[in-house]
Amino acid sequence: MQVTDAAYEVLKEHGQPMEVQDLLDETLRKLGQDREARQVARIYTEINLDVRFQYRGNSMWGLKEWLPKSVAKGSTGRSGGYDDEENGDVEEDEG
Asked: With CB atoms counted within 10 Å of each terminal CB, which end of the chain scores lower, N or C?
């Protein structure tokens, strides 16, 4: 099992964002691995690179699929995501 798949399953089972250290510990437990600095760094790096995960701030990670569709679709990569209306980039039809 890939480390990111294990982390994804941990978050899915938890059902809400998790503090990163708890997520890493649970992922290692699911993989049957001991907590070693090298493994922790590897998992954290993989989570950062996987588009299924989203950093929520304050050391919390969640799944991008938990975001409302309009926010996930219009995300600009900034924390929380933004769509065009929130940025004021959409002209309103006055007629």
From this structure: C
Domains in the chain, start-ordered, CATH in brackets? 3-64 (1.10.10.1250)
Using only the alpha carbons of the chain, give its radius of gyration: 16
pTM: 0.72
- Quick one: average pLDDT of 63-90? 60
Closest Cα partner for 51 from 41, 61, 39, 60?
61
Kindly write down the DSSP assignment for every residue of 32-72, as one continuous string: T----HHHHHHHHHHHHH-TTEEEEETTEEEEGGGS-HHHH
* Cα separation, 80 vs 76, whole angstroms: 9
CB atoms within 10 A of CB 55: 15
Residue pointed to by tokens 């924390």:
79
